[in-house]
Amino acid sequence: MRAHVLQHVPFEGIGSMAAWLEAHCADVSTTRLFADPTLPQLKGLDLVIAMGGPMSVNDESTLPWLRAEKRFVRDAVERGIPVLGVCLGAQVIASALGASVYQSSQKEIGWFEIEATPNATDSFHLPSRCTVFHWHGETFDLPSGAVRLARSAACENQAFQIGRHVIGLQFHLETTPDGAKTMIDHCGAELVPGPYVQTESQLRDVPAAAYAEINSLMEMVMSYLLGTD
């Protein structure tokens, strides 16, 4: 298996996905768009993972590599290559496929509940309700042909699926305790009080079991996308 990661900032890596990929003997390559936006050929890739970041997909004037990234993602989708987008990565998928991405009415940072939305039996099924890790201030419209997989009180479109091989998650299932600490260290200034923004102390006090639960769910997402479930 060949997996390619689109990384937008140094402090947001693939987290718990690394262990799943290693267990499946994957050859993992990475484009660190913040350092060198050179993208590989799609031929031979079995999975594309677009990760998170504090920028907006609408920042093409200041981050011109976003245009190339969106073309890359759109081409991967059209070729039937499995694509997984996390937070900004989900917004990249949405934008690449013609949907709008814009400021959400509520910034969502911390551990909040999502609710699965009923869909066809062949779509990925999240738990009916579960608490996951969020860190986002923008949201998106669903791309054409997408089905919504989840919503929350703060954000109507929390996850979507297109066909059998494309999933976008507005929230983070890959985050580990170390990953959360790194995000707090780099983006702590965003912890401005709000109805869906937890405090730094609340974020730092989350037990390891909560991370294990979301990481297990991420394994299920990846197994579904790659047909190993």
* Biggest sheet: strand arrangement: 2-1-3-4-9-8-7-5-6
CATH superfamily: Class I glutamine amidotransferase (GATase) domain
- Distance separating the two termini: 15 Å
Overall mean pLDDT:
96
Whole-number count of domains: 1
- The proportion of residues in beta strands is 25-35%
What does this structure look like?
With about 230 residues, the chain is an alpha/beta fold. The protein has one domain: 3-Layer(aba) Sandwich (Rossmann fold), CATH 3.40.50. About 30% of the residues lie in helices and about 25% in strands. It is built from 6 helices and 9 strands; from the N terminus they run E-H-E-E-H-E-H-E-E-E-E-E-H-H-H. It has helices at about 15-25, 65-80, 90-95, 175-185, 200-205, 210-225, and strands at about 1-5, 25-30, 45-50, 85, 100-115, 130-140, 145-150, 160, 165-170. Strand 8 (about 160) and strand 9 form a beta hairpin. Helix 2 packs across helix 3. The radius of gyration is 16 Å and the shape is globular. The two termini are about 15 Å apart. The model has no long low-confidence stretch (mean pLDDT about 95).
